[in-house]
Amino acid sequence: MRIEKSQIDQYNDGLFSRHNNQFIFLKEQLAEQGVQADEIIAELARFQVAIPSWALGTGGTRFGRFSGSGEPGSLEQKIEDVGLLHALNRSSGSISLHIPWDIPKQADSIIDLASSFDLQFDAVNSNTFQDQKGQELSYKFGSLSHTDAQVRRQAVAHNLEVIQYGEALGSKALSIWLSDGSCFPGQSNFVRAFQNTLESLQAIYEGLPNDWKMFVEYKAYEPNFYSTVIQDWGSSLLFCQKLGPKADVLVDLGHHLPNANIEQIVATLMMEGRLAGFHFNDSKYGDDDLTVGSIRPYMLFLIFNELVEGMQRAGNSSDAYAWMIDASHNVKDPLEDLLQSVEAILIAYAQALLIDRPKLAVARQENDVVRAQQILQNAFRTDVRPLVREMMRRSGGALDPIGLFRDLQLRTQLTQERGAVSVATGL
Ligand code: AOS
Ligand code: ZN
Ligand code: ZN
């Protein structure tokens, strides 16, 4: 299914006058503060957030899964869904595939389909956290870190195969998240597990094409509950430093112990030039994988504050990093949820671009703590939604993506096409 440009234009016409009043008002307000709205809009327009193939269907917990209707049942349908998102917000221009859930059987036709929606292929994701049908050796006790060299070889071979699938589609990165670890004290030798993992990662790194990156994701716990091999950003960075310049650290917002200062982690990784990018989500307790910005929007803003500062220091732009949503849901329509997530990311980015950095530097230098906080919160408390909407409108998207999604009854149409009980492959 596709959304016609005329449907978007017609919808926008109805909202334009109200939106434009709000936009002009904000633009003038910002101009008084020396901020050019058009420059922020241009930055927002180039910011593309990849959609993971596994977030297009209803997720679940170990207590069950409540499938929605009209979920994509094939890779083609997943691409169509991301095409819908991108048509609505013009900010979701790539899809991140998961192997083996999304094996592209005919790469050429998959590329053609994606191009027809103006989509590219983001990082490919390997999976050694589950056993697949017909798999020779089990990952029950680990994969790249396993005590048995044969299991490690099997997991390395899987990652090399994932790279091949990605190459055929034009992906430029392999994301590795390991569930390896232990559930009980004494179960694992920490040092051996680290060394085994390093050797395995080195073998994968050797098979990485020259223009590819390896993203190394860390996670404090789950599904292993006593230790994980790549438990935190320090372990991940250590692996990356030992592997070489093509390996960088991937930050998933849900993968930290409670109250971790994620923005400081981001600043440090950027200082070292080792930040690969993000898996965005939000959480109250752990790896809850909730809608981005739904629980801790100020934290998201503080992360973007460091990102903007880090990009300015490095002299690069948002294109230099990988931005992805990694979420999974039980109660919302996955497409509406993803639209909310992308909007929350753009809002946080726009707010961070408003920060008066020269004044912040002076306040910090003078140890004016109150002023420093005010500068950040002035930006955070600015309603930047008119900027985000204007960016989407100028880029050819809808002024209110969720509004149009509902107006066109897209889920009903998808359900008619795909059926009420179709189930997406994945988490
Ligand atoms: C798991 O908790 C991680 O966030 C992974 O990044 C991701 O959910 C998984 O790799 C999906 O395949
Ligand atoms: Zn993740
Ligand atoms: Zn996760």
From TrEMBL:
Keywords: Isomerase, Manganese, Metal-binding. GO terms for molecular function: isomerase activity; metal ion binding. SUPFAM superfamilies: Xylose isomerase-like. InterPro entries: L-rhamnose_isomerase (IPR050337), Xyl_isomerase-like_sf (IPR036237). This is L-rhamnose isomerase/sugar isomerase.
